[in-house]
Design brief:
Blueprint: H1 2-34, H2 39-49, H3 58-66, H4 75-149, H5 152-164, H6 168-177, H7 180-187, H8 193-207, H9 212-230
Length: 231
């Protein structure tokens, strides 16, 4: 069955090829009979048979060659385009420079304002510290005057209470401002072992320069912190 089918296909292909050759022969014979089988016609037939486009006649080829191609940019257009781009970049750089100068000016103003604020704050704190110290000094003078007018034993009891409430620095300042005779009478009332130990602690702190030394140390520390913050 398959052999018969293949044989039929071979016969069909052969018939087509023979028919094509006969058609081309008849066409050539007809053109020759009509007197139109010249060299140009043969070239066209060969080109069509090979599957190529037929060559254009001289008139059509001349028109194709004379037609203008796609329009190309001239040198002037290219130069103008480059100039526009360069100008655009220049304007952008100028705008960027102006903005940068404005930012730098505002930053300088901000720094000046910050420095002025720091000076005002420092001056205010100084005045506040002076006011507080003045108030404390007046209060200590008042307390000292009260203790001086008490009997020595009563003054001692009040001093012990102040030490108990962790006011030993105030005790030292008050005793330091008292007249020597009045202070000696009060100190003489510290008779028990516990009272003597409390008095020894008070005298030790007086020898060490407390609380004035602590105040100096705190002031130096605050100055160091301000210098570190400024840097």
């Amino acid at each position: 069955m398959i052999g018969r089918l293949l044989g039929a296909i071979v016969v069909l292909v052969a018939a087509v090829c023979v028919a094509t050759v006969l058609a081309e022969t008849l066409a050539i014979g007809y053109l020759r009979y009509r007197g139109k089988l010249d060299e140009k016609t043969v070239v066209k037939l060969i080109a069509v048979a090979n599957g190529a486009d037929a060559p254009l006649p001289p008139s059509a080829r001349a028109r194709a060659e004379n037609e203008p191609g796609p329009e190309q940019a001239s040198l002037e257009d290219v130069a103008r385009e480059r100039a526009l781009r360069s100008r655009d970049i220049e304007l952008r750089e100028l705008a960027l420079g102006d903005n940068l100068a404005m930012v730098q000016t505002e930053y300088a103003k901000l720094i000046d304002e910050k420095d002025r604020y720091e000076r005002i704050k420092t001056a205010f704190r100084g005045q506040l510290d002076e006011l507080r110290e003045g108030v404390l000094a007046n209060n200590r003078d008042t307390a000292r005057a009260i203790l001086e007018n008490m009997k020595p034993k009563q003054a001692k009891d009040q001093i012990l209470r102040m030490v108990k409430y962790d006011e030993i620095d105030d005790v030292i300042k008050i005793l330091s401002l008292m007249p020597t005779a009045k202070r000696a009478k009060i100190v003489g009332e510290f008779k028990t072992q516990e009272e003597s130990e409390t008095l020894a602690g008070i005298l030790k702190r007086i020898r060490e320069g407390v609380p004035e030394k602590d105040l100096v140390d705190q002031t130096e520390k605050a100055l160091d912190q301000q210098d570190a913050a400024a840097n």
